[in-house]
Write a structure and sequence with these properties.
The chain is an alpha/beta fold and about 300 residues long. Helix content is about 40%, strand content about 15%. The chain has 2 domains: about 140 residues, Ribulose 1,5 Bisphosphate Carboxylase/Oxygenase; about 90 residues, Rossmann fold, CATH 3.40.50.790. It is elongated. Belongs to the universal ribosomal protein uL1 family.
Length: about 300
């Protein structure tokens, strides 16, 4: 075979292999593209077969809708499932700055149906005032010896409310660091520093509740037990709201009694979930209670 003919045949074989390789590559790309299309169609078919609502991702931490007060009370009672009688708590976010002295919100209210708790009352008094306190039902009555017992007791406190006659206030400075953080330090603005010891003890025993904003401008307060009737809880809440309005800072900007002051109001039991309450229904309950009391 001639040399020229051998070279030509080799070139033809090389060209044939190149064409074959290109055809294989094109076929491979076609198969891959076809597979991608099939996958897309399968995904679309699966989505078409799924009910529409399940395609919508649920919003996380979506706020609950505010309930009417009566409905919120029912929900709190229905969701209190612990093996003890839980307290019904109110948590109120206020539009104030707790760092400013002129916007500090604190007050007291005597709940018409009480708190449902057995309240132990301590009175700092001597002489006739001490006897008056005992006669009114005070659980602990004492003077300097009571102050000493608290100082040396390692911070142990066995009372829920604390009352003092005015002359005792300078002496209570020794235990202010013990009583203060517990909300037990007697305060003239709250009526717990008074010469009317008998009236103060009876009020404390009958359901007097003190309230004060915390550093996040929220008030946390117990307003009864889940065993109370819905109406009793409604009236306790209304009485508290009226007291909260009375404690509103004078210089706070406002367009109404509630706007700019009471940002949100929620109810819960001790261990149960919280339920936001509409300010409109809170206002209606407070107004209704005021009218009944005025009759």
């Amino acid at each position: 075979m001639a040399e020229g003919e051998s070279i030509t045949e080799g070139d033809e074989q090389l060209q044939t292999r190149r064409v074959s390789d290109e055809q294989l590559q094109r076929e491979s790309r076609r198969i891959e593209a076809s597979a991608r299309v099939r996958r897309a169609l399968l995904i679309q078919q699966e989505e078409d077969n799924v009910p529409f609502p399940t395609l919508i991702k649920p919003e996380k931490n979506k706020p609950k809708a505010a309930l009417d007060l009566q409905e919120a009370i029912r929900e709190v009672k229905a969701n209190a499932k612990r093996n003890f009688v839980e307290t019904v708590e109110a948590h109120v976010n206020l539009g104030v700055d707790p760092r400013r002295g002129d916007q500090m919100v604190r007050g007291a209210v005597t709940l018409p149906h009480g708190t449902g708790k057995v309240v132990r009352v301590a009175v700092f008094a001597e002489g006739p005032a001490a006897e008056e306190a005992r006669a009114a039902g005070a659980d602990i009555v004492g003077g300097d010896e009571l102050i000493e017992a608290i100082m040396t007791g390692g911070g142990k406190i066995n009372f829920d409310k604390c009352i003092a006659i005015p002359s005792f206030m300078p002496r209570l400075g020794k235990i202010a660091r013990i009583l203060g953080p517990r909300g037990l330090m007697p305060n003239p603005k709250l009526g717990s520093v008074t010469s009317d010891v008998s009236g103060a003890v009876k009020a404390a025993k009958c359901g007097r509740v003190d309230f004060k904003i915390d550093k996040t401008a929220i008030i946390h307060v117990g307003l009864g037990k889940v065993s109370f009737s819905e109406e009793a809880l409604r009236e306790n809440i209304a009485a508290f709201v009226n007291a909260l309005l009375l404690a509103k800072p004078v210089g706070l900007k406002k367009t109404s009694k509630y706007a700019g002051y009471m940002n949100s109001f929620s109810l819960c039991s001790t261990m149960g979930p919280g339920f936001p309450v509409s300010i409109q229904s809170i206002s209606a309950a407070a107004d209704s209670y005021t009218k009944v009391q005025g009759k």
